[in-house]
Amino acid sequence: MIPTPDLSHIRKEDYERVYEPAEDTFLLLDALEEDEALIQQLKPSICLEIGSGSGCVTTLLAKIVGNKNAVFFTTDINPFACETTQQTGLHNGITQIEPIRTSLVDAIMPRLKNRIDILCFNPPYVVTTHEEVGSMGIEASWAGGIDGREVIDQLLPLVKVCLCKDILSPQGIFYLLLINENKPDQVVQLMKETYKMNAKIIMERRAGREKQFIVKITH
């Protein structure tokens, strides 16, 4: 069992500026740890986390991969999250994290065409008004708009064009976190029927009134 990354370097007041790891974060960590043998067998050389926040997920993924030559790119629209992500990696002995301040994958294409072996996304999924979507501060970590799907739906249409043909490597794996309000079964069917990808819910957990899911997507 790989220990949860040490976040003691992050001060309490910092969580007013960056998303504090919570039940959704830990569900994604558990899904990655559950697939530890598969990920290690894959021998990923380039990984990407969209919306890295504290950097907890990428740091754990780097520990699972265990390859000092692998590179772990992260993106976040929040500059403080980019800084915190790198500091979390360094605090836990991970030096290969390369944060990029951008929305979704805007700044990394086409540079990483067909290169991403592991892709992780814990999106802003909370149901909010449309006007709350798109902030560059802490709100960007949770405001998901209508059905909590507005940011998610910005990424999913890219799957056929980008994730399948441009971003994911042929053996790449995409781990996507959703909640019940995001209609995860609908997302799975969309990935299968519209984008011709393999998709299934591999883990789910109730956190208070919220039910959370991990969808795993592959070619």
From TrEMBL:
Intracellular or extracellular location(s): Nucleus
Location (main, coarse): nucleus
Gene3D superfamilies: Vaccinia Virus protein VP39 (3.40.50.150)
GO cellular component annotations of the record: eRF1 methyltransferase complex; large ribosomal subunit; nucleus
One MF term in the entry's GO annotations: S-adenosylmethionine-dependent methyltransferase activity
InterPro entries: Euk-Arch_PrmC-MTase (IPR052190), PrmC-related (IPR004557), SAM-dependent_MTases_sf (IPR029063)
Keyword terms of this UniProt record: Methyltransferase, Nucleus, S-adenosyl-L-methionine, Transferase
Record's keyword annotation contains S-adenosyl-L-methionine: yes
Biological process annotations from GO: methylation; regulation of translation; ribosomal large subunit biogenesis
Family affiliation: Belongs to the eukaryotic/archaeal PrmC-related family.
PANTHER family documented for this protein: METHYLTRANSFERASE N6AMT1
NCBIfam families referenced in this protein's UniProt entry, alphabetically: hemK_rel_arch
Protein name: S-adenosyl-L-methionine dependent methyltransferase
Lineage start: Eukaryota, Fungi, Fungi incertae sedis, Mucoromycota, Mucoromycotina
